[in-house]
Design goal:
384 residues, Heat Shock Protein 90, four-stranded antiparallel sheet
């Protein structure tokens, strides 16, 4: 799956699963609140029934002529009787509880007005501990339901997401097929042009046609670089890398010589600070693409008689130009494929995307700063 496809799928899943989770969370909370109240109401009804039992026993005691009165008790239920002024008379609460202080989140309370007064009592207060077992069972059932629903909707969302990105996948396949066919057709004429230019330069010695040959060379090398970039994009997932120790100093000198005709055409002044014997473990072709794309952008978007500064150390490669620069709003998106921050020069908008892929593959760090009409500086850090 391509990076753009994976990013679109992840965004769809995040939106889909987040909205689904919020909807189910609200529905589950409403169901839990309603069910919890129903369970508590059942316990309150039971408490009312137990209060009636105690009241009946108080009535029996009131009418009894026995000398010893035994206060009625029910298992797990506390009760107390109060006079008309709400003063405590007797009960099973230890210590005695006031009618104004019956606040406990772990118990249910029920107050009964006794008429006529039995044993001088005007009020009966009963309470019992809340049975949290059915509530906890309800919570477990809801959490289990949420987990199963999350798994089900994640699987469903994944398949919906695949259907969602299928048109984009087909479009990308058609584009890749077009690129593959195009690069195949470009390969032979480009190779022929470059080979013949080298032969003319070696044996022809045609000084009067030097300018024309330089222009042909620039155009041919530009086509060759575009061909290499398109081939890399097309074969990126199947690209076989051979990581070796590459002398970056020699490679940069080689690539500067490769772009010499383009540099001379823009009359750029080159300033370098290249330390000796800088080696890097990397696939040589990846290193060439990394340097070529950065160099070609620095040359292409530079001004006539501009400056180009290159520095390479044991830790990093720095390239600074005095070109047209990049607008701040484009700096965050300029690494995206087919994104072009400036249309004044030709290009497909794939160079920095290739740079970004190579940097991410090797775990390098890429930094870019730019000011419009002043220039751009890029740094590739491979060691910290």
């Amino acid at each position: 799956m391509l990076h753009s496809e994976r990013r679109s799928l992840i965004r769809f899943l995040v939106i889909y699963l987040t909205s689904t989770f919020l909807l189910f969370s609200i529905a589950s909370w409403v169901y839990y609140t309603s069910s919890k109240h129903h369970l508590l109401d059942k316990q309150r009804e039971l408490l009312k029934y137990e209060a009636q039992q105690i009241q009946s026993q108080l009535r029996i005691l009131h009418r009894s002529e026995a000398k010893k009165l035994i206060y009625p008790k029910i298992k797990q239920v506390d009760s107390a009787i109060y006079d008309l002024d709400k003063h405590y008379i007797f009960g099973t609460y230890t210590p005695p509880i006031s009618l104004e202080k019956r606040h406990d989140k772990k118990r249910l309370f029920h107050l009964v007005r006794i008429e006529p007064y039995y044993l001088g009592a005007a009020y009966l207060l009963v309470s019992r501990p809340i049975d949290f077992a059915p509530i906890e069972q309800l919570q477990k059932h809801i959490l289990l339901f949420m987990a199963l629903a999350g798994i089900l909707f994640s699987i469903l969302g994944y398949f919906l997401g695949k259907l969602f990105i299928e048109p984009m996948r087909n479009a990308m396949k058609q584009m890749n097929r077009f690129i593959q066919d195009t690069t195949h057709e470009l390969n032979t004429p480009i190779s022929t042009i470059l080979a013949n230019i080298e032969m003319i330069e070696t044996f022809g010695k045609c000084k009067e046609s030097r300018a024309e040959l330089d222009r042909i060379s620039i155009a041919s090398r530009t086509l060759s670089r575009i061909y290499e970039d398109l081939t890399y994009l097309n074969l990126n997932h199947d690209y076989h890398r051979t990581v070796v120790s590459v002398n970056m100093c020699e490679l940069i000198e080689e690539r500067l010589n490769y772009f010499s005709a383009m540099i001379e055409a823009k009359k750029l002044e080159i300033d370098t600070d290249i330390h000796t014997d800088i080696t890097l473990s990397i696939d040589r072709n990846d290193a060439i693409r990394l340097i070529d794309n950065l160099l070609s952008n620095a040359i292409k978007y530079n001004r006539i008689h501009g400056n180009l500064f290159l520095e390479i150390t044991q830790n990093m490669f720095l390239l600074r130009d005095t070109g047209i620069g990049i607008a701040p709003k484009d700096l965050t998106t300029v690494l995206q494929r087919f994104k072009r921050a400036n249309s004044s020069e030709g290009g497909f908008g794939i160079g920095l995307d290739i740079v970004d892929q190579i940097v991410r593959y090797y775990g390098f760090e890429f930094q870019m700063t730019s000011k419009e009409n002043e220039g751009t500086e890029v740094i590739v850090i491979w060691k910290k």
